[in-house]
Predict the structure.
Amino acid sequence: MASSSRWYKLDNAAKIVPSQAHGADTRVFRLTAVLKEDVKKDILEQALIEVAPEFPIFNVVLKRGIFWYYLEDSEIIPKVSEEGEYPLEALYYPGRRNLLYRVTYFRKRINLEVFHVLSDGTGAFMFLKHLTAKYLEIRYSLPVTHFDDDISSMQENSDDAFDTYYEKSAGLEQLKNMEKLRAWQLNEEKDPNLRCHLLEGIISAKKFREKAKEYGTTVGVLCVALYIEAAIKRMTVRQKKRPIVVSVPVNLRQFYNSFTARNFFSVINIPYDATEYDGTLSSIINRVRSEFEGQLSREKINENMNSYAALEHNIAVKMIPLTIKDIGISLFSMIAGRGVTCTMSNLGRIEMPEGLEEYIDYFSAFMAAPSEQVCVSTFGDKMVFGEVSPYVTHGVMMNFFRAITGMGMEVEISTNDFDLRDEGDKNKGEKEECNIAPSAE
């Protein structure tokens, strides 16, 4: 571990995270590597000790400044523990000096949970991939693997890419637009303790790509369109007066030359007027495709990135004391949340070095959310949908999976809820064992 007192400014996306973390929205990512044999704790701990120094931005604690939070190097040695009762539990507690990530295991699963202040899903997967590779190297005496496409240097994976690529922006237009949206909201039964409820669905990536081609579209567009259709089927006639809005994080590394493991993403919002639905998926796909094409141009991405980054460069915002910022950001987050029905993040295909694939079953991802968030990841032929919400029912996602089985694809469903088994019986290939994490029951 580093022995210096080096500190880091929070990147642009991270600055608002501590103020948002409360209740079910712990702002914690959960990434999982599911192996083909049970995990051995001592080997995983050895792998963690070896890999952690390669990611200095993860080995920090969160501190409060006068105007902003900041990160400070820590000599705390990371530990491995067996999975506890609840996934996605809070990692940040004001005033407590602790690491902002945890590594746990449960049967065949290696879990990495990360506070969003450190990284986004893509950056956190860099860490998990290295950790998994190191674990497999040690356990099976494999040759040392390399990730040339992920990490160029420890300096680069700690870079604040928002600061590197920021160009002066006219203002906070993107954030102001978020305040104006009013979307249809899920109205399910909430967990009385606001615990996170997880649902994992696994399908064939090849068959899903083929289905997307049949519709003349991409995997990302089809995912969003299927979710919108599933949501429409949960709406009453009166509720259709409000649009369904799916928020889609965009990995900015694909637009800029960055290897950072820190946050580096933007967000596009895909609205759909439910009254335009004519009963066919194609009617939704056409609208979603148009929104993707319009919002994913290089010019639009650059404009959105600069608009978000303008927050920390705004002189008036800089001079507001942190205590007041916390209140303002919490209020803004609540208002902006009214403009989003669900967040769907496609983390893409997870690649591992040659020779390791045979030891890995699949990868999955989850993100704590105040309402509902779906993370999509693909490894080999397994495409995994990881849904998180504070609701004890999963109405929209069960409609989503029914639509997929209706297309002729099998879905394997796992959950940390025992009470979903009867619901899951309606889907082909459901896993009887609820093995995402130990259940609270």
Remarks:
- The two ends are 38 Å apart (CA to CA).
